[in-house]
Design a protein that fits this description.
3 domains; 27 helices; alpha/beta; TIM Barrel; globular; single chain; five-stranded parallel sheet; eight-stranded parallel sheet
């Protein structure tokens, strides 16, 4: 009999209950008991939902109070020394300090989870590190589900994936594979405890098997799983791979000494034949047929075609139907979207609905297609509707794409010429200060925006409220002596959603929340059709802000690749085509901002590294169209207009040529958590344009001192010429409160002035 599974379920709750509970706990308005009760309620709700939907293998330990990789650090006792952990179970104070930092200690680094917009906490390992089982979370949650009458399949981040995505400490030469025995020993201890509790299957997530792996890692995989199998000959283990195909790792993956293998057939449907031909006779194959990364309804007929091939080869008892990856990356429940356009809603499926799709495919395999005739008919109708809908296809947009010329993606002059003209026009000091864009989104701002959307205040009242906030932000920046100002983005709910609301081809949900990191949730827009910009989107606000001051005001835009990456994107045309459509829309906005007197325009592209394919063989094609999209959006301006871009938590070393090819006049990047380590790529490449390495980690509640920031700038000066350096926070400030923002920005300006004074004295 074909069985079913999901690899994981969204954690935050349909109304973001977890987010609200965690933030109340952080503020001190809720106890840890309150937080744990919310977590228990959500877990039981999600387990029950999956059981009722017909899921056979229901995951546990996929839930987290912050991040599943941080949970793995806690399980292994991989706690950096600065947290002064003394052994034993990891308490919540230490756990959240690792995630967020506090007044005494900095947070651990964050990075993107493979090519998703989910941020994970990067493990910090060092030479000769020891590991010890230091968390009971997997056991507690398995037992919790069992007590509720629900058998689950506990989920663990794989030992090799944990190792491969880790960060080396300064004394750790890249011989991390020597840590495999110590890590695996803890996994064995944990797996034995789960087996003793009655667990029949355990899911070990190894998405690193979709990467280009060095031979040493392939050998380490074999070593790790041989150790696990030798210690646990009877426990059933499912190794889950996702986000791409196995390719040259197929032989390795199918021959690991485990009981089952999961493959992602949404991202890499062409891998099935190779896996079927090589899978040993004693292994189960889990087919990731329902998309865990996007929100379009499953084409049930197409999925059955694939699944029937696997059943014909393996038999029903060796096939599991599953989501392609964890459903963490999708919203919770489409039923909550009562205001969504009915036609578009008919094309969609969120996490709850995807569970039903998984069960339906399995039913079609077990009982024949005749048993799901109605479901197949409805699925085929959706596919036909999307193919022919005039709401999707806009001929004027298609004509604009055809009219793109190479000249449209190039500035008029090289940077050396532009730089001189911009210096003459802007007259900025050494180490110019600016912020990334947003300022705190206060309760008053959110209330005004909500009231306007609800119709309880009119457009005039809303505009007055936003202009008041803009003036407050401008006056504050003038008061502390910032050099390049921003208007604060009070009118924006989200850096992608705000633009999507004003572009044709987009639609939006009310409760389509997806976790980005910790308690941070986003509501990704849905790109369902051809994209265009009917009217200016930001000009009015930027123009008003500029009218308040003689200092330069940055226009703030989100770049085409970030809008693409942080949306749910249509799957009926290449992503590159959608990116070009967005780029032309942003280009129109850039042109209008310049005409309105805005001489500095920032086009944020924090997601350009995130969109990089997992396999190097695919990089060249992606980077070509991604860079082209940015340049299409930015290259309509005259030389005197300064183009900025911003990128978040990106390892730049391997794509620095493409970052340079974007040809932004100034790039700002997040570097404070890594203590300027990310600048190494810009040094070796001899990046010619200007750089703003972040000196304040805005993801932490810490208020850094002026001396700390100046120290980071001095580190940056050692590797980047001082006349190329800008001074800015790591990222936008919308998630921080004014009580943190005011002193931190004051200190940031002090740090810049300290370096200016130092250089003046040196020159005297």
């Amino acid at each position: 009999m074909v069985t079913t599974s999901s690899l994981g379920f969204p954690r935050v709750g349909v109304q973001r209950e977890l987010k609200k509970s965690i933030e109340a706990y952080w503020k001190g308005s809720a106890s840890e008991t309150d937080l744990q009760e919310t977590a228990r309620t959500l877990r039981l709700r999600h387990w029950t939902m999956q059981k009722e939907a017909g899921i056979t293998h229901i995951p546990s330990n996929d839930f987290s109070l912050y991040d599943h990789v941080l949970d793995a650090c806690a399980l292994l006792g991989a706690i950096p020394p600065r947290y002064k952990w003394q052994g034993g179970a990891i308490d919540s104070k230490t756990y959240f300090a690792m995630a967020r930092g506090n007044a005494e200690v900095t947070a651990m680094d964050m990075s993107k989870w493979f090519d998703t917009n989910y941020h994970y906490i990067v493990p910090e390992l060092q030479k000769d590190q020891t590991f010890a089982l230091s968390s009971t979370k997997p056991f507690d949650e398995y037992s919790e589900a069992k007590a509720a009458g629900i058998e689950t399949r506990p989920v663990l981040v794989g030992p090799m994936t944990f190792l491969i995505i880790s960060k080396k400490a300064t004394d750790f030469s890249d011989c991390r594979c020597t840590l495999v025995p110590g890590i695996v020993a803890v996994y064995i201890e944990a797996l034995k405890k789960l087996e003793a509790l009655g667990a029949q299957w355990v899911q070990i997530d190894e998405p690193a098997l979709a990467l280009d792996l060095e031979d040493r890692y392939k050998d380490a995989y074999k070593t790790a799983y041989k150790m696990i199998r030798a210690a646990l000959p009877n426990l059933k283990i499912m190794v889950a791979t996702y986000f791409d195909g196995l390719r040259d790792n197929t032989e390795l993956a199918v021959n690991l000494p485990v009981n089952g293998l999961h493959i992602d057939l949404k991202r890499a449907p062409d891998q099935l034949d190779a896996v079927l031909s090589k899978l040993p006779a004693d292994k189960v194959l889990s087919l990731g047929l329902v998309d865990g990364r996007n929100i379009w309804k499953n084409n049930l007929s197409a999925s059955l075609d694939i699944a029937e091939k696997a059943v014909a080869k393996l038999g029903k008892d060796r096939v599991i139907i599953s989501s392609s990856c964890s459903l963490l990356h999708t919203p919770n429940d489409l039923d909550q979207e009562t205001a969504l356009d009915p036609q578009i809603k008919s094309w969609l499926a969120f996490a709850k609905q995807k569970l039903s799709e998984i069960a339906t495919i399995a039913k079609g395999l077990n009982d024949g297609r005749g048993a799901i005739t109605a479901e197949l008919k409805a699925s085929d109708a959706v596919a036909q509707d999307r193919q022919t809908s005039t709401r999707i296809h806009n001929q004027s947009v298609k004509a604009a794409i055809k009219a793109i010329t190479p000249a449209m993606a190039n500035r008029h002059s090289p940077f050396s010429v532009r730089h001189q003209k911009q210096q003459a026009a802007l007259k900025l000091p050494a180490f110019p200060t600016t912020s990334i864009g947003s300022f705190p989104q206060t309760e008053e701002i959110r209330k005004a925006r909500a009231d306007f959307k609800a119709g309880t205040i009119n457009a005039a009242a809303y505009e007055i409220a936003m202009k008041k906030e803009i003036e407050h932000v401008v006056r504050f920046q003038e008061k502390i002596d910032m050099d390049v100002l921003v208007h604060g983005e009070a009118e924006r709910n989200d850096m992608v959603e705000y633009f999507g609301e004003q572009l044709q081809g987009f639609t939006f949900t009310k409760n389509g929340w997806v976790q980005s990191y910790g308690s941070r949730c986003v509501k990704p827009p849905i790109i369902f059709g051809d994209v265009s910009r009917p009217t200016p989107m930001t000009v009015k606000w930027s123009q008003y802000a500029q009218s308040l001051t003689k200092l330069p005001m940055k226009g703030m835009l989100t770049g085409p690749i970030t809008i693409l990456q942080w949306s749910f994107v249509r799957d009926d045309q290449p992503r590159s085509e959608t990116a070009r459509q967005i780029a032309l829309a942003i280009r129109d906005e850039v042109t209008d901002l310049e005409k309105a007197g805005i001489n500095i325009i920032q086009i944020d592209e924090p997601a350009i590294r995130e969109g990089l394919p997992l396999r190097r063989a695919d990089w060249k094609a992606y980077l070509a169209w991604a860079v082209e999209a940015f340049k299409l959006s930015s290259c309509s301006v005259k030389d005197e207009t300064q183009i900025h871009t911003h990128m978040c938590y990106s390892e730049f070393n391997d794509i620095i040529d493409s970052v340079g090819a974007m040809d932004a006049d100034v790039i700002s990047i997040e570097t404070s958590r890594s203590q300027m380590e990310l600048l190494e790529a810009f040094v070796s490449y001899k990046y010619p344009n200007e750089i703003g390495p972040g000196v304040w980690d805005i993801h932490s509640p810490r208020i850094p001192s002026a001396e700390e920031m100046a120290g980071l700038l001095e580190k940056a000066e050692k590797v980047i010429p001082s006349d190329q350096l800008w001074v800015n926070p790591d990222c936008g400030l919308k998630t921080r409160g004014w009580a943190e923002v005011e002193p931190s920005l004051v200190n940031l300006v002090k740090a810049a002035k300290t370096l200016r004074d130092k250089h003046k004295r040196a020159a005297a």
